[in-house]
Design goal:
With about 250 residues, the chain is α/β, with parallel strands linked by helices. It has a single domain, classed as NAD(P)-binding Rossmann-like Domain (Rossmann fold, 3-Layer(aba) Sandwich), CATH 3.40.50.720. The protein contains 8 helices and 7 strands; from the N terminus they run E-H-E-H-E-H-E-H-E-H-E-H-H-H-E. It has a 7-stranded parallel beta sheet, with helices on both faces. The model has no long low-confidence stretch (mean pLDDT about 95). It is globular, with a radius of gyration of 17 Å.
Length: about 250
């Protein structure tokens, strides 16, 4: 990772923040974005105090102009993007389809799918100019199978992320731009835990339902992200890669 330029969305907490720290610890130059200024600034400061190189840019991925600006700033700072990790996303509605408003559906699609499209559009433009790169999109087990638990809009969006990943990988293979999606199941980030802990016993129930008997941590996922970012994965593109404790195996 030394001297590689990494661009990350959705990095003011959870997996994105952990990825920003991991890449900086590996001597990469990191530009990361998210909506929350306080958290982003704190992460930037923490990385710099540890001797890493990182820049935070406040960005809402649902607003195309803000994404374009963040990518342009990365190019201004470093002249290229070698690796992009598109991690911004979240489920914004819980409940049955018939009770969902059109606005709630669209908001889920905008954050989880259109936001990923906005990022990929400008990342690909940059990578074509510099001879290629690796794009890693955060999808979900909900992106490869149905989920009957009141998250239909999120399921639709994450299926879209997987499809967008595959199409972009084929479009730009000749440009040496690799595009892959991470199929992640339950992961114990701060945000996820806040929701789960509202229901007594839910964490234990979810853990027991996992084939490996436990919920993932960010430390389980980070090594795979850095692998996909590296030249060691140069023959992997267009893949929806499961890091899900066996959840999608059957």
């Amino acid at each position: 990772m030394k001297d590689k330029v990494i661009f990350i969305t959705g990095a003011t907490s959870g997996l994105g923040a952990a990825a920003a720290r991991a890449f900086a610890d590996a001597n990469a130059k990191v530009v990361f974005c998210g909506r929350r200024i306080k958290e982003g600034t704190e992460i930037e400061t923490d990385i710099r105090l540890r001797g890493g190189e990182a820049t935070f840019i406040q960005t809402d991925v649902t607003i195309e102009q803000q994404v374009e600006h963040a990518v342009s700033e990365t190019i201004r700072l470093y002249g290229k993007i070698d690796v992009a990790f598109n991690n911004a996303g979240n489920n914004l509605y819980f409940g049955p389809i018939e009770n969902m408003t059109g606005e709630q559906f669209v908001n889920n699609i905008m954050l989880n799918l259109t936001g990923t499209f906005h990022a990929m559009k400008y990342e690909i433009q940059a990578m074509k100019q510099s001879g290629g790169g690796s794009i890693i999109n955060t999808a979900s087990t909900a992106g490869v199978k149905g989920v009957g638990q009141g998250i239909a809009a999120y399921v639709a969006a994450k299926h879209g992320v997987v499809g967008l990943t595959k199409a972009a990988a084929l479009e730009h293979a000749r440009n040496q731009i690799r595009v892959n999606a991470l199929i992640i199941s339950a992961m114990a980030t701060e945000q996820w835990l806040q929701g789960v802990e509202k229901i007594p016993g839910m964490f234990e129930k979810i853990s027991a339902s996992m084939p490996l008997g436990r919920v993932a941590t960010v430390d389980d996922i980070i090594p795979f992200i850095t692998f996909l970012a590296s030249d060691n994965s140069k023959m992997i593109t267009g893949a929806a890669l499961a890091i899900d404790g066996g959840t999608t195996a059957g």
